[in-house]
Design goal:
Blueprint (H helix, E strand, L loop, with lengths): L2 E12 L41 H13 L3 E2 L2 E2 L1 E5 L9 E5 L5 E10 L2 E14 L3 E4 L5 E4 L6 E7 L6 H18 L11 E11 L9 E6 L2 H20 L7 E6 L4 E7 L9 E2 L6 E2 L2 H8 L6 H12 L3 H8 L2 H16 L4 H19 L10 H12 L5 H14 L3 H7 L8 H14 L1 H8 L6 H11 L6 H18 L1
Parallel strand pairs: 12-13
Antiparallel strand pairs: 1-10, 1-11, 2-6, 3-16, 4-5, 4-15, 6-7, 7-10, 8-9, 11-12, 13-14
The protein binds adenosine-5'-diphosphate, magnesium ion and zinc ion.
């Protein structure tokens, strides 16, 4: 019997507004710099008699996400109490949404080896984050309420995924969409995005769903992919043995590499949802929706396809560039200018994704703080194309430009990086190199012609990268031929 996996994901995304979801406390990134329990107030500490107020900006960012995912925005939103008891939940319930959530019935387009695919989005609703527990070695725990009440958007997919590859594509694509919309920075280590995976197995071709298990608290792409892969195999093995999969909530043990039982169905939570009496139903007018729709930016996949079509770049490079909208903007600015100077978009993509990334990563500089403007990068690439500087020299120049903010022409001048294409100067360098390495010359003349590459390298080094490699190779070969004839 052939089986197929069925997977649905629930994604929790922190919404990085200035204030929390239901109070005015500031939202702080989980960097560990802010002292615990200093961004709290009576509302998010759940002191008696306090009242929640909905954060308008969180609603708007949630709506924009819904619109970007092609969802319908419910004209009336209802907030609801989701009751459970845990030390990180001061009220004893979470204010969430249940029956009338913010957004419903959308889809996210993903790309896999098999081509593009649409994964249905069931719903996206607003809720609040819990506090954070710090478990101590002695079995006690400390609680920090700075995170309590931080806005969350929960995005629930349809059970439309069939493979781990699709799960990964969905999660990474959704992360990029959230970054593009400014929901958060997509930093998994800071818990800005968290996953729960629902997995079931059924005979291939079946139309009904099998019994699912739910893997909780997945905080990295690696844990998501590994746990889903493990769970698919575990369930297959259960079915092959003739047993049935039991509906359970599972955890993922990163170290052991297996899922483990957290709760079985009999102990499933009864959240006793009911409408939050302290928050009136939220009415969303068509005008409000349309005003926000106008702010939804071009999404990563659409941008990737446009960059490929407009600049003729490879899918790999386009995917790399759209990973960060600021990088894509930088590329487009540089490629537009470079085109006028006869430089291809692919050349610009190579420089941005190659040497520029290397320099910025090494210095820990984000691209919008880069001292080399797109104009200047374009000019530098044009200098390479014209033969004024070699690729090696241009890399040196770019490093200096990013450090000092100089123009390429100035750096090339200051560091004396102009390529030696003057045949006399080059011939002198070549003669000196050949005289310095008689053994290698002998080898070449004895027929080991593949030593030529090494000799080219020596000349390049002697010229401090300023020699034109093609000219060097040609003149070097000539010089060696002359010596051959002279023998
Ligand atoms: P719950 O609160 O029980 O987690 P939700 O409706 O919030 O329920 O989430 C259910 C998730 O599980 C959705 O992503 C849905 O696509 C997925 N799902 C439901 N049934 C199955 C199934 N049989 N196999 C795999 N995924 C499923
Ligand atoms: Mg769930
Ligand atoms: Zn507060």
């Amino acid at each position: 019997m052939e089986y197929e996996a069925v997977i649905g994901l629930e994604v929790h995304a922190q919404i990085h507004t200035r204030a929390k979801m239901y109070c005015a406390c500031p939202v702080v990134a989980d960097t560990g710099d802010v002292p615990p329990n200093t961004r709290v107030c009576p509302v998010c500490l759940a002191l008696p008699g306090t009242l929640p107020v909905v954060n308008r900006r969180a609603v708007e960012l949630g709506m924009m996400t819904g619109l970007a995912l092609g969802c319908t925005i419910n004209p009336v939103n209802v907030f609801a109490r989701k009751s459970y008891f845990y030390p990180d939940l001061p009220k004893g319930y979470q204010i969430s949404q249940y029956e009338l959530p913010l957004a419903v019935n959308g889809a996210l387009e993903i790309e896999t080896e098999a081509g593009p695919q649409r994964i249905g989005i069931t719903r996206a609703h607003l809720e609040e984050d819990t506090a954070k527990l710090y478990h101590q070695d002695d079995g006690s725990a400390l609680v920090d309420f700075n995170r309590a009440g931080v806005p969350l958007l929960e995005i629930v997919s349809e059970p439309d995924m069939r493979t781990v590859e699709e799960v990964q594509a969905y999660a990474t694509t959704l992360r990029e969409v959230l970054i593009y919309l400014g929901i958060n920075a997509g930093d998994m280590e800071k818990g800005e995005m968290r996953f729960e995976a629902n997995v079931s197995i059924r005979p291939k071709g079946a139309t009904t769903l099998g019994t699912r298990t739910e893997i909780k608290n997945l905080n990295s792409f690696r844990a998501l992919a590994a746990s889903v892969a493990y769970e698919i195999e575990r369930q297959k093995a259960v079915l092959v043995k003739g047993e049935t999969v039991i509906q359970q909530t599972l955890g993922w043990d990163e170290v052991a590499g297996n899922t483990y039982l957290q709760r079985s169905k009999e102990y499933a939570h009864d959240y006793r949802y009911f409408p939050e009496p302290d928050i009136p139903p939220l009415e969303i007018t068509p005008e409000w929706i349309e005003a926000l729709r106008a702010h939804v930016p071009e999404l990563p996949l659409a941008k990737k396809r446009r960059l490929m079509a407009e600049y003729g770049i490879r899918p790999y490079d386009a995917a790399l560039l759209v990973g960060d909208p600021r990088v894509a903007d930088y590329f487009e600015a540089a490629a537009g200018i470079a085109r006028a100077q006869g430089v291809t978009g692919q050349d610009v993509a190579n420089w941005v994704g190659g040497e520029l990334f290397r320099i910025l990563n090494a210095a820990g500089t984000p691209i919008d703080a880069c001292k080399t403007t797109p104009e200047r990068l374009a000019t530098l690439i044009a200098l390479v194309q014209q033969g004024t500087v070699s690729v090696t020299a241009a890399k040196t120049a770019l490093g200096a430009m990013c450090e000092t903010g100089e123009a390429p022409e100035d750096v090339v001048q200051r560091l004396g990086l102009t390529q030696i294409s003057d045949a006399n100067a080059l011939t002198a360098l070549i003669e000196a190199t050949l005289n310095a390495h008689p053994a290698q010359v002998q080898q070449y003349l004895a027929g080991k012609t593949n030593i030529l590459g090494w000799l080219v390298g020596q000349v390049m080094q002697a010229s401090k990268g300023k020699a034109n490699p093609q000219d060097t190779r040609r003149l070097l070969q000539q010089a060696l031929e002359q010596r051959n004839a002279g023998l």
